[in-house]
Each structure stands twice: as C-alpha cells, then as structure tokens.
UniProtKB/TrEMBL annotation:
Catalyzes the dehydration of D-mannonate. Gene3D superfamilies: Divalent-metal-dependent TIM barrel enzymes (3.20.20.150). This is Mannonate dehydratase. InterPro entries: Man_deHydtase, Xyl_isomerase-like_sf. It catalyses: D-mannonate = 2-dehydro-3-deoxy-D-gluconate + H2O. The keyword Nucleotide-binding does not apply. GO terms for molecular function: ferrous iron binding; manganese ion binding; mannonate dehydratase activity. Its EC number is 4.2.1.8. Pathway: Carbohydrate metabolism; pentose and glucuronate interconversion. Its cofactor is Fe(2+); Mn(2+). It comes from Vibrio eleionomae.
Length: 352
C-alpha cells in the first residue's frame, strides 16, 4: 500500500507540502490542475511544473485526481468527440510526465453533494453533512447559493464556470435516463482505454457521491452490480476503480465484498467513514470503524489479505481545532493526518 495525500496546489491550498511531509508514511501527492475547466487540454508546461514542485518536496506525483469529464460527454452530445480528443491527449501528456493513475467520475452535474459543510458534532468538531429531507425539498440553485456563502476556496466539482451554467445543464438532463448515461460512459471508455493501454496509464472511476439519485439525476456507479457492469463495458485492466468507502458507504454496501470481487481492478483507494441514519441522512466521522457505519478495519484487512500495493489516501475528515476558519470543506489537515495514522496502525498490526 502506498499512502498519499490530496493537495490542491500552490496558492490554492492553505496546507503546505512541508506540513504534509511531517505526516509519517506519506510518500505521494494526489494532485490536479484544479483551475482547468472540464474538457480543456492540459498543457505540457503546466503538468511538468506541477510534477516538479511535488517531486522537489520529496513526494511522487503518480496519481491525478481528477481529469474532469466534460458534461457534453456524459450527455452524449455531438460535441463530445472534441472533448474526448482533449482527454486522450491529456492522458498522453500525463503519462509522459510519469503519472500512473487518473481518478475521474461520471456523475451528472455534481461531483458530490452535501447540504451542510460544517455541521456540528458532539465532540465539538464539525463535518460535511447530508440531510435527505432537505435535498428533497430544495431547489439545487438555492443549495448552491447557500453552500457557496463564506467559502473562499474552490471546491472540486463546484467550480464557478460549472455553476454558472447550472440552470442550462439541468434543462439538458431533463428526461435523461440511467441507460443513456451507461451508453455514453461506454462510448467514452471505448475511446480512451486504448490510449491508456498504449501509454500505460490507468483510469479509476470514483463511485457516485452519494450513491443514489438526487434532483432527478441518474447515478450509476453505486453498488457491486453496477461496478461489475462498469468493468465489463471495456474489459481491460486499465479500466479500473477508485474505491471510495465513504461514497459507497452512503448506502448499505458491503464494501469488503466489493474489494474481494473486484480487487484486480482497484487502482486507487479513498478511505473515510460516514455515519448513516435511518432517515437517509449521513455525516462524515473520524476514520475509526466504531465511529461510523463503514467497517474501516475490515476494509483495510481485506486490502491486506489481497496484498494491495496500490495507492490509498485518507478522504474527507472532520474539521478540528478551529480549522473550519481556513480549511477547504472536508479537506483540513488534522483529521486526515489522524486518519492516516489510524489506517497505517491497522496495516502495521496486520504486517506484524
């Protein structure tokens, strides 16, 4: 297992590479060019500069999260081929720079959805929160406006250029079905996986977050059955998975069973915990198994059983010790560092 940490780049992340360097066991940075709109071609110069910055700080830059998929590809519009060509060339350039894995998702409109960014927990910390009844009774534009207030950092999947077109995008998805989304995902993979095979760069799809339909938008990467379908669309080891225990844990998935049955296609792991409630709400918790609904210990044991040598990072953490005043929602320093030590502690106990 190779422990990594997600970082948003110089001038875009208040956590420094020097601080990350002090977390034991972290040898890689998960990065992206976060200011690049979906569908745009990434320049070799920008890629080279970012990789050099990361390597000079003592890390590898093997994993990119994410190269965002343009909405026209998901919708299957005639313009999709232009954006797919850009995607393929970006993959070539990333491979040339030494990138091994690209995480992406195929969620319509929203990469992730919560109703509150800093919901208080009993211990005095706060965390991302999803309230089912609120989602069912709120206009998505109102939700965006509410969550964007007093947040002075970009949030992945909620970029300004994407949000500016939100109303039009929702119109485009009216009547859009899951089967259409599946068809468009297959078309995309049939185009890009041959490039991945040629340049030895793996794709890992991120599960939908949450793993159920919201605002009438289809969600398809949600459970074992659908994950197996995804892997069969293009049966190549380069068509793989970025398993996120929190996204899959938003419903009652057997995540160790998913790992067991799909292990050979797992290229990247996000480990986090969520606490589910009977009414459909859920909230991020610490990484400890006993604090949430995801058996994180069993997840790590299952990875160890199979001899996992791929990349892993702690995912969304709580905001601790007042860091909500400056941290990107879900991506503070302290709870992710604690999560790393918990994950490595379980792993080390299994190794010994």
């Amino acid at each position: 297992m190779r422990m990594t940490f997600r970082w948003y780049g110089e001038g875009n992340d208040k956590i420094s590479l020097a601080q990350i360097r002090q977390i034991p066991g972290v040898d890689g940075i998960v990065w992206s060019l976060h200011d690049m709109p979906a569908g745009e071609l990434w320049s070799e110069e920008r890629i080279t500069k970012e990789v050099a910055t990361i390597r000079q700080a003592g890390f590898h830059a093997d994993v990119v999260e994410s190269v965002n998929v343009h909405e026209d590809i998901k919708l299957g519009l005639p313009t999709r081929d232009v954006y797919i060509d850009n995607y393929k060339e970006t993959l070539r350039r990333l491979a040339k720079a030494g990138v091994k894995v690209v995480c992406y998702n195929f969620m319509p409109v929203f990469d992730w959805t919560r109703t509150e960014l800093y919901h208080p927990l009993k211990d005095g910390s706060n965390a991302l929160f999803f309230e089912q009844s609120r989602i069912q009774n709120i206009d998505p534009m109102e939700l965006i406006k509410t969550l964007s207030q007093n947040v002075d950092v970009t949030m992945p999947g909620w970029e300004p250029e994407r949000l500016a077109k939100l109303e039009h995008t929702f119109v485009q998805y009216q009547g859009f079905t899951s089967e259409q989304l599946w068809s468009n995902l297959q078309y995309f993979l049939e185009q890009v996986i041959p490039v991945c095979e040629q340049y030895d760069i793996k794709l890992g799809i991120h599960p939908d977050d949450p793993a159920f339909a919201i605002f009438g938008l289809p969600r398809i990467i949600t459970n074992l059955t659908n994950i197996k379908r995804l892997l069969s669309l293009v049966d190549s080891p380069y068509n793989g998975l970025s398993i996120c225990t929190g996204s899959l844990g938003s419903i009652n998935n057997d995540i160790p069973a998913i790992i067991d049955q799909c292990f050979s296609r797992i290229h990247f792991m996000h480990v986090r915990n969520v606490k589910r409630f009977a009414n459909g709400d859920f909230i991020e918790t610490s990484h400890r198994a006993c604090d949430g609904s995801v058996d994180t210990v069993k997840v790590i044991k299952t990875l160890h059983k199979h001899g996992y040598t791929g990349y892993l990072r702690p995912d969304h953490g709580r905001h601790l010790w007042g860091e909500e005043e400056w941290a990107r929602p879900g991506y503070g320093l302290y709870d992710r560092a604690l999560g790393i030590m918990y994950i490595l502690g379980v792993w080390d106990s299994l190794e010994s």
